[in-house]
């Protein structure tokens, strides 16, 4: 579902990028060992990239556990239609030992865990209703043992990952190494 419209975004090249973007590109390459196209495109706006990373870090520090957070993010990515995000967060859940959960979320099948099913349904309702959650999903959320604080933490997560999913769809970024990275890795033709 990622956009197939070419909006003219290109992967930034660390050697020619503005200093703020260059710092993002170099830090990402140092952290991951390569520069994904999604970052090389998002870094066109260092402010957006920094805001996303800060919001994602804040979401990671909430009372929600890893599997709960990834359930929220994968549901949001599926609902928004960001193939890159679906692939990435499905992989995170799989590496955490929850491949069946990830598969069910992506396929819109019943989830293997009732509490996480309530969380997924609440996330869909929160997105659909733009925060004005109906009484049924709200009551189910609380009855499943989630708190009002966690409801707002989910809003934080959705804010963070709306930035990245929208940016990925707009720019057409992928998880492949950026074109500038691939060029650096090509042997010279001397």
Total DSSP E strands: 0
Radius of gyration: 18 Å
CATH topology, by name, is: AhpD-like
Coarse structural class = mainly alpha
Largest sheet: none
At the fourth level of CATH, the homologous superfamily is AhpD-like
Span between N and C termini? 41 Å
Indicate how many domains the architecture comprises. 1
Principal-axis shape: elongated
- Averaged pLDDT, please? 89
SS summary, helix count:
10
Q: In the CATH hierarchy, what is the class?
A: Mainly Alpha
Unreliable stretches covering 5 or more consecutive residues: 182-190
Strand percentage: under 5%
Helix content: 55-70%
SSE order in H/E notation?
A: HHHHHHHHHH
Characterize the structure shown.
By secondary structure, the chain is mostly helical. It has a single domain, classed as Up-down Bundle (AhpD-like). The chain is 67% helix and 0% strand. The protein has 10 helices and no strands. The C terminus is likely disordered.
């Amino acid at each position: 579902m990622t956009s197939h419209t070419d909006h003219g975004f290109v992967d930034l090249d660390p050697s020619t990028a503005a200093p703020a973007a260059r710092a993002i590109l170099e830090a990402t390459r140092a952290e991951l060992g390569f520069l994904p196209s999604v970052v090389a495109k998002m870094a066109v706006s260092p402010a957006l990239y920094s805001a996303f990373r800060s919001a994602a870090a804040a979401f990671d520090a909430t009372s929600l556990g890893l599997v709960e957070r990834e359930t929220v993010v994968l549901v949001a990515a599926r609902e928004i239609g960001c193939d890159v995000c679906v692939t990435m967060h499905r992989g995170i859940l799989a590496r955490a030992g929850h491949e069946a959960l990830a598969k069910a979320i992506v396929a819109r099948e019943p989830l293997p865990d009732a509490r996480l099913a309530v969380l997924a349904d609440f996330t869909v309702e929160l997105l659909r209703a733009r925060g004005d959650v109906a009484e049924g999903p709200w009551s189910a959320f609380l009855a499943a043992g989630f708190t009002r604080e966690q409801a707002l933490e989910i809003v934080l997560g959705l804010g963070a990952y709306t930035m990245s999913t929208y940016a990925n769809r707009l720019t057409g970024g992928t998880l492949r190494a950026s074109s500038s990275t691939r060029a650096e890795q090509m042997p010279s033709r001397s």
